[in-house]
Records
---
Amino acid sequence: MKILIVYYSRTGVTKKLAIHLASFLNADLEEIKDQNSRLGLLGYLNSGKEAALKKIIPIEKLMFNPKDYDLVLVGTPVWAFTISSPVRSFLEKYKNDFKAWAMFCTQGGEGEQKTLSSAEKIVGSPAKAFLRLLTKQVLRKEFLSEIEVFKEKLEK
Ligand SMILES: Cc1cc2nc3c(=O)[nH]c(=O)nc-3n(C[C@H](O)[C@H](O)[C@H](O)COP(=O)(O)O)c2cc1C
């Protein structure tokens, strides 16, 4: 099965998980990039505002084409109890190009179910599997059993 992982990461946590998943699942890896500054307090507040307002923002062109893959794995940090604005923008743009899709997120605490349901609403079909990890689990690399279970669900 050909898998593409597409993710956004502001501070490197979701990126760390995405890189690990790419080697674990033998997948191609694509980082979503945008032009908005997300540094510092202002960047944090703007990011939260964009997520809460469900803003669609310009994102850079992808290197890989989701249409070429059997499965697209979408990774996001949870922002304001929902998907990050760069990932929302990616989903809106490419949702019709997925043969199958699944999702993973990293988060400090709560909001994963709303994050998943927001993404499912945009794509219009349920995610094949969903992996949610806390920031601290990713930083400590305490996720081996979770990603094994995730992989099993993806292969079903
Ligand atoms: C603007 C903003 C809003 C956030 N809102 C939530 C939230 O609602 N729930 C939560 O569990 N974590 C929240 N977080 C924490 C991030 O989801 C968490 O730190 C994540 O692992 C960061 O991933 P990254 O390093 O890939 O950007 C928020 C972070 C930011 C920047």
Note: The first helix runs from residue 13 to 25.
---
Amino acid sequence: MRIGCVLTDLDGTLLEHGGVLGAEARAAISRLRGLGVPVVPLTSKTETELRALLAELDSGGIGSFENGAGIVTPSGAVVSEKAVPADRLSDRLDELARSAGVPLTPAAALPVAEIRRITGLPEEKVPAMLARGFGLPFLAPEGAGPALEAAARGLSGARLTRGGQFWHLSGEHGKEDAVELLVRSGAAARPFAGLGDAPNDAGFLALCDAAVLLPRAAGGVDPALAAAVPGARVAPFPTGRGWAAALDRLLAEDE
Ligand SMILES: [Mg+2]
């Protein structure tokens, strides 16, 4: 199929564990660059992390940070009207802890060694991971999920999500809001091919002209994601190798 733009999640989709770009993904991005197709990451990573990655990808310089809080384009950054600055969110986190009756630990308060153990990041990449403008990652005690989710229903203008071991508190935006910002700013043009591996990718994948789900390393697609994006294709392998193979197949259709 003709692809105007590739919208992609990063962790567990394009990148290997530890945030590394593998050889197959690198080759596929290079092929897309030759075809003039930008690769646009839609990530929960920070703007600092996104900008470092965009420089490495060299594939159009367009992307979205912090789960749709904003976008970066060659002509500047645009912040979503739904994004809430992190300093206002820390008050909301205290409110959430009180109302759920559980202690909550912001990622910024954790020792660097603990963050590295959870994320697999090298030490030099931890400060960029913590430089959040519009969200607060935090840890909650084992089993606190139901109390947290119940307490979060009483918070207005804030959204609670879970990504791996970290919980996140942010404004009420998701990666799907980035698609609207990209289209409105003229930074990305359809048809969109979209690739993701987790339930927080479902919103943007549903807006794509072709959606591809990446299986998890342990095998099989996340069941909540598969249910939320019916009719999506499934990549033949996890992470960058599957990403590259799925794009090869899409590009080969009606060539
Ligand atoms: Mg992911």
Note: The two ends are 7 Å apart (CA to CA).
